[in-house]
Amino acid sequence: MSNKFHQSALTDYTRSYARRVCADFFSNHTFISGKQILNLTPIGQINMFIVSNLFDKWKADTEKFRSPYFDFTHPEVEEAMRSFMNVVSQHIAVRREYLEPMLADALRRTLTLIFDSRYYFDELLRNQPDFTLTADAAKQIVRYTQINKFVATSLVDRMNGKPFMYVNQALNCLDEIMSQRSHELERYDRYVAILSEKVPMDINALLRTSPDAVNGSPARSFFDTELDSSVPAVGAGVIIPKTTSAAEAMDRSSPALRPTLTLTTEQNQPEFSPAQVVPDVSTNEASGNGVHFAPEETDRYDREPFSEPITAPVSEASPMTSASLRQATTFEAPRMSLELTPQNQAEEPTSVAEAFHRAPIESIGKSISLNQKFRFINQLFSGSSTAYAQAIDELDQMENYGQALDLISYRYASQYLWDMSSDEVSELVEILKRRFA
């Protein structure tokens, strides 16, 4: 439940309001009709939520008529059922004992929509069957939403005509809508004034937070505000943090910009510092365009180690001419290329067992061992073997690896709150790779 309310205060207020409204109406009526419900309270959203509740009950009652002994898919039967239910819907008659709890619930939902819209739509999406938001369900949400309706219509627009959207995707869209258009959320003031005419509302007793902070723009993270500033570029389009050395910058640039060479030095001299410069092997002068930075210590894994220290260290305090700089540094032809070849880039299986486990498979279910099956059921599907079997069968029917990965990312991972770094998820992803290899 929304943590912006004192739940006991919210329950007390909604029940008091429903009791007062029903007492006023049923003092002169035995039943309430559909048209009367639409005008029951001065806030249309409350009335629409009652109608929405009746619509859900109407659909549930329709399903009760279906029987395994008759063909309810026959066109004549479908037409007769549709005509019958439409006639029934035109004769709504609700007694007070049934209306009062529906009115209290409708008011609770309305207050949540007013004071905590983000939570309201989040809960609405998470309660969708099969963790999937269908186009029809989205249209129904739009139909029965009046307050902050732009959120519902924006969700439909994000579907872009698709028949459904996984709830996890819908929640991402909801985050974007709320962050971009939170200033459009309706104010609570006029609704509180209207409700208080029937039953006075104490906002401070109802809410845990200040009312003015309820529908404000969401606070930005430190990492969103302080880290947005870009770092100036160094050289030809190379972006370097302030603490990055010049040698690191050259190492991150194109391999063609780095000299492929090995340095030789004499004994008992300090090592060459990464901050020092050496002339480009393609030039004879250490001019501004002919100076390259020496590779760092971290680059030494792909070439032979230095055999000797440098003859004379270069000091920033004693500038050197191009001639003396060339005299202080000697070069040899490279003993090893710094560029990786396709042969050493490809990683071959190291054993027969590894090669076997990477081989393509025809069925996900048949490739899962008994031990894996038990762990998947317990760790990924909350102990439900039925949910596990349905998921594996659905994954097997996907056309490619991308579709299968989307299914577990946008549906099952969110539905069962998976830890995506767990061994079970990693094993399942590896099996998917083999299935669609």
Characterize the structure shown:
Helix content is about 50%, strand content about 5%. The strands form four sheets. A two-stranded antiparallel sheet has the order 1-2. It has a two-stranded antiparallel ribbon with strand order 3-4. It has a two-stranded antiparallel ribbon with strand order 5-8. The chain has about 425 residues and is mainly α. Strand 3 and strand 4 form a beta hairpin. The radius of gyration is 35 Å and the shape is globular.
Report the helical percentage: 40-55%
Strand content: 5-15%
Structural class: mainly alpha
The largest sheet is: 2 strands, antiparallel
Question: Could you report the average pLDDT, rounded to the nearest whole number?
Answer: 75
Order of helices and strands: HHHHHHEHHEHHHHEEHEEEHEHHHHHHH
Gross morphology is globular
In what order do the strands lie side by side in the largest sheet? Answer: 1-2
Poorly predicted sequence stretches spanning 5 or more consecutive residues = 216-312, 314-349
Distance between the termini: 44 Å
Strand and helix layout:
Blueprint: H1 7-26, H2 34-37, H3 44-64, H4 75-89, H5 96-115, H6 117-126, E1 132-134, H7 135-143, H8 149-159, E2 164-166, H9 167-181, H10 189-196, H11 203-206, H12 222-225, E3 233-234, E4 238-239, H13 246-252, E5 262-264, E6 277-279, E7 291-293, H14 322-328, E8 330-332, H15 342-345, H16 352-357, H17 364-367, H18 370-380, H19 385-396, H20 401-415, H21 423-435
Antiparallel strand pairs: 1-2, 3-4, 5-8, 6-7
